[in-house]
């Protein structure tokens, strides 16, 4: 497991993400209460996805270099 996965798991398991201070619809608040939610914005999630996708591509390229 990479460091991000461990941090994300710790945050989720700790239940520290709340909707306090955020403007959410009643449906979203109910969903967060039922299954949890994250304190990150859509932009932050996209940045994290791009970052870790890039790390995966880099690791794949390094792995293929050794296969030649």
From TrEMBL:
<protein>
    <recommendedName>
        <fullName>Lipoprotein</fullName>
    </recommendedName>
</protein>
